[in-house]
Design brief:
Layout (H helix, E strand, L loop, with lengths): L3 H18 L2 H19 L11 H83 L6 H33 L7 E3 L1 H11 L9 E4 L6 E3 L1 H18 L6 E8 L2 E7 L31 H10 L4 E6 L5 E8 L5
Parallel strand pairs: 2-4
Antiparallel strand pairs: 1-3, 4-5, 5-7, 6-7
Helix pairs in contact: 1-2, 1-3, 2-3, 3-4, 4-7, 5-6, 6-7
Length: about 325
């Protein structure tokens, strides 16, 4: 037969379990009820609420005290846990509100930058088209001048198309709708496709390429060549005169690595952290343009779990490095 001490411990365990999951209004009555059960059924004389043995009285009072204290502590711990959860949720809500506010601020800044950039980059070609169109209405204009004005219109229309292409590409990057479709491709083919895309921008710049035969890269050739084209275009824009642009591409250690070196003015150290932000143009490399090319390149590469970095070369110029995990050679 179980002794009163063993029974008291079992009842105490039951009371603590109740206290751990129930409120204090339930835990305290449970403690009192357990003490009465211990007294009535297990402490002589049985069937009464009296206690004959002084030692049993001590057991009973200790049991009642421990069960009440345990109920109180369990309820207090549960209350503190509930408060901690509430504080955590409130902190999460505040952080979410803060992030939403910062995101709204960034969107507003980007929208302002976009409008400012577009105001310049659209006004210039539109003005040129308007003037050229007006000149073409001159019946006395010679055929050579007419062709010259027509070429101005064509060139500025191409420029406008390029601006809108950048805007659409940036919108797709921001919306996260880009999906990579990798296939096995030679690094040299990516370089060639990129150079063809920006052939007009490379006028006057000798291009030195180094894409030796070797492992193929398992990447999305369309996204990768478009990203590389933006980097090459950036190099051509900032490199002076007829200075060369060097492009290397190869697969090493399961990664496609492409570098583009120019001999421009380099990048101020203060501008390096923000160089790939949308609409940002470094001070010493500021020229006409929306400032979206490098941001688009980064977005196209991120869609393939790749990345791009920039650094200054010695004694002058900048180097842009593209890295994409290829899953090995083929």
């Amino acid at each position: 037969m179980a002794t009163p001490t063993v029974v008291a411990l079992l009842l105490l365990l039951a009371v603590l379990c109740i206290s751990a999951v129930a409120t204090r209004r339930v835990a305290v009555p449970a403690s009192v009820a357990a003490a009465l059960v211990l007294n009535f059924f297990f402490l002589p004389p049985l069937g009464t609420l009296t206690i004959a043995d002084p030692q049993h009285s001590i057991v009973w009072f200790v049991f009642l005290a421990v069960s009440l204290v345990g109920s109180h502590l369990a309820s207090a711990a549960r209350s503190r846990a509930a408060e901690a959860i509430a504080q955590r949720d409130e902190m999460a809500r505040l952080l979410a509100a803060r992030e939403e506010g910062e995101a709204a601020k960034r969107r507003a800044e980007l929208a302002t930058a976009l409008l400012n950039s577009m105001g310049h980059d659209l006004r210039t070609p539109l003005t040129a088209i308007e003037i050229a169109a007006a000149n073409l209405q001159d019946a006395g204009m010679s055929e050579s001048l007419r062709r010259e004005q027509a070429e101005i219109v064509r060139t500025q229309v191409v420029r406008l198309n390029r601006v809108f292409d950048r805007i659409i590409a940036m919108a797709r990057v921001d919306a996260g709708v880009l999906r990579a479709e990798p296939e096995w491709v030679h690094p040299g083919d990516i370089v060639e496709a990129a150079m063809q895309e920006v052939e007009a921008s490379l006028a006057g710049h000798p291009v030195v390429t180094d894409a030796p035969d070797g492992p193929l890269a398992f990447v999305d050739p369309r996204l990768t060549s478009t990203a590389l084209a933006r980097v090459i275009e950036n190099a051509a824009r900032y490199a002076p005169g007829v200075t060369p642009i060097a492009i290397t591409a190869a697969v090493n250690g399961g990664e496609l690595r492409i570098t583009v070196d120019d001999e421009g003015p380099g990048i101020p150290d203060a501008d390096l952290p923000r160089l790939f932000d949308p609409f940002y143009r470094a001070g010493s490399r500021s020229t006409d343009g929306l400032g979206m090319g490098l941001a688009i390149a980064r977005g196209l590469l991120v869609a393939q779990h790749g990345g791009i970095t920039a650094e200054n070369r010695s004694p002058r110029g900048a180097r842009f490095s593209i890295v994409i995990a290829t899953g090995g050679g083929h």
